[in-house]
Amino acid sequence: MPAPVSSDPADLLVIFGITGDLAHKMTYRALYRLERRGLLDCPIIGVAADELSEGELAESARAAIAAGGETIEESVFGRLAKRLTYLHGDVTDAEVYRRLAKKIGRNHRPLFYLEMPPALFGPIVERLDEAGLLAQATVAVEKPFGHDLASARDLNARLRKVLREDQLLRVDHFLGKEPVIELEYLRFANLALAKIWDRDSVAAIQITMAEDFGVQDRGAFYDPVGALRDVVQNHLLQVLALVTMEPPSGPGADDLRDKKAELLKAVRAADPKRCVRGQYEGYTDIPGVAKGSSTETFIALRLEIDNWRWAGVPIFLRAGKELPERLTEVRLLLRHTPPLTFLPSAAQVEQNQIVLRIDPDPGLRLQLAGRNDHSWRSLHLDDRFAQDLGEPAEPYERLLHAALTGDHQLFAREDGVEETWRIVQPLLDEPPKVHSYKRRSWGPAAASRLLRGHPRWQEPWDVEKS
């Protein structure tokens, strides 16, 4: 094993796969925004198989930044372009790493960011180790971290042969979203929320991640994956951990990740009988999708947490494509008030709700009950975070900066990842049948029956109308 890594920030960024899709959609733009804010302070080496000059690489970066909606300031882009150098070759070839070692030189603390398919994570870190490049390094890898519990354990074991856990950053871009980070502070810094955030006050929790578009031209990628692996095992279970965990005991990265892992260990493994899978009409006509495919493009499931705070509170998750709108939200439905005699009995007071909108246009809503002369009415106390907290950094901008500066709070840890796979493994072993659903509907009707005896799926918070 390499010597202990320095706690100092990285002084060099090496991006494997710098000509790939993620770099063009996210990484270049994040680097440009960091440069503009004066937060980028290291050379960048791109590694990929494409034969490009460094000038061509810079022009590719410029095009990607502009396509991402940024107005390019020439002085800012000029500084970023000067940081970029390039090394091309096959990442499984030892010669690439000899050339990379020569290019890096001695006494650097590199961050190796692997924007590559997971099958290459092991070979790349092993080649880096053989070239003597891991002693003071940190390695960041993109999800997915395996495709089931066994493969996640195998991948972790392979990486841990040459890396310690504190050298390894597992990137899930949801953990870089401002409202996800804000969850910890909303819960524990506000007594008004902390006192009702448990089984005594909460009747049910609903977490929804909806997309109003389909698989489109990504059929070959999506069909072997499906909604459960794509967004539930990682994004939604990480959000669930933050919604329901106990307060961290300190400010460190492992203080937070200890509590997330503790919570995930308390989540019962998912029951296939409490899961509904759906597939939107026309999915199997998409190029790259297998004829007769049973891959789910929608999934809804019920989970339970076996701990003192949440015992008996049902947790409902749903995610899908070709739904009526694009949004991600967390909703806590509080218990009904008692039917006191002074309250009008014509209609029961509607449940109070706490709604955290994660994406897009993040915000917080408190739904209370009021009454005019004739009937009960819902009162909404809304806050859009950008108005009061300012425009946030984008997820990859935040994650890259955290990785470069040595802040590991925003990255998943090995034990937490394995727990999320444990939770969903029964659904992979015994997948429920797939129900067809119409495009731009809220999924198959069976998803509503999943909530029988509990509050129905709630209409999402329409931020534009509030």
Entry keywords:
alpha/beta; Dihydrodipicolinate Reductase, domain 2; six-stranded parallel beta sheet; 35% helix
Characterization of this structure:
The radius of gyration is 24 Å and the shape is globular. The model is unreliable at 1-6 (pLDDT under 50). The chain has 466 residues and is an alpha/beta fold. It has 15 helices and 15 strands. Helix 6 links the parallel strand 5 (138-142) and strand 6. It starts with 11 loop residues before the first strand and ends in a 17-residue tail after the last helix. The strands form two sheets. The protein has a nine-stranded mixed β-sheet. A six-stranded parallel β-sheet has the order 3-2-1-4-5-6, with helices on both faces. The protein has two domains: 12-142, Rossmann fold; 175-392 and 413-450, 2-Layer Sandwich (Dihydrodipicolinate Reductase, domain 2), CATH 3.30.360.10. Residues 14-180 form the Glucose-6-phosphate dehydrogenase NAD-binding domain. This is Glucose-6-phosphate 1-dehydrogenase.
Write the layout of secondary structure elements.
Elements (H helix, E strand, L loop, with lengths): L11 E5 L4 H16 L7 E5 L5 H14 L6 H10 E5 L5 H11 L5 E5 L6 H10 L7 E5 L6 H12 L7 E4 L6 H11 L2 H4 L7 E9 L8 H4 L3 H19 L8 H14 L8 E6 L17 E6 L11 E6 L6 E8 L18 E7 L3 E9 L4 E9 H5 L5 H11 L8 H16 L4 E4 L8 H4 L17
Parallel strand pairs: 1-2, 1-4, 2-3, 4-5, 5-6, 7-10, 8-15
Antiparallel strand pairs: 7-11, 8-9, 9-10, 11-12, 12-13, 13-14
Helix pairs in contact: 1-2, 1-3, 1-13, 6-14, 10-11, 10-14, 11-14
